[in-house]
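Annex B. Sample input.
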Amino acid sequence: MFEKAILGMALLRILSGSTELFAAFLFLKFNDIEKALMVNSSLALIGPIVLILTTTIGLIGIADKVSYIKLMWVFGGVACILYGLRSS
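Annex B, continued. Sample output.
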């Protein structure tokens, strides 16, 4: 059926998307900009975690097919993304 890595990555993204929808409903429920900003700030923590987990699952899935140099480039790219997010 589906590869395990693909299924894991898809489930994480579905969970992440569901969290985003839940946050949007909380915005509407609270109807308060300060509370909405607090909810939005908590989403900023979840995004990078999902990025790291899905990338890790994907890399584990292709680890036997890709050279170590290319894997290091991918990890370096993810590190740059996370550093850029942290700096802002």
